[in-house]
């Protein structure tokens, strides 16, 4: 079972980042895409859902419909694939996006 607060590793292209499931928005039918349930408490194996996720560090991703290679991702936990999905929408500035890495600090100093 997956519920809000779950923190697996997100694999998107070559990036591997811890990511928190902030909110389970709605459970959907994977074949038709129709909404089955709003705000589910948890997801079971075989369920499809729309979920808000917050990455632990900034990551370069895009909307799947605009740029498919950067819009696909896999969710893994304990060496097992938990979910495979696409990015439908994103918020450019979310929690954790204000952290600056060491390499970014060095790049700022050289300018």
TrEMBL record:
Alphabetical list of InterPro entries matching this protein: GTP-eEF1A_C (IPR054696), Transl_elong_EF1A/Init_IF2_C (IPR009001)
Domain GTP-eEF1A C-terminal: 1-88
Pfam annotation, one family: GTP-eEF1A_C
UniProt keywords, alphabetically: Elongation factor, GTP-binding, Nucleotide-binding, Protein biosynthesis
Any one GO molecular function term: translation elongation factor activity
Family that this chain belongs to: Belongs to the TRAFAC class translation factor GTPase superfamily. Classic translation factor GTPase family. EF-Tu/EF-1A subfamily.
Protein known as: EF1A factor
Species in which this protein is naturally found: Crocuta crocuta (Spotted hyena)
Gene: Eef1a_0
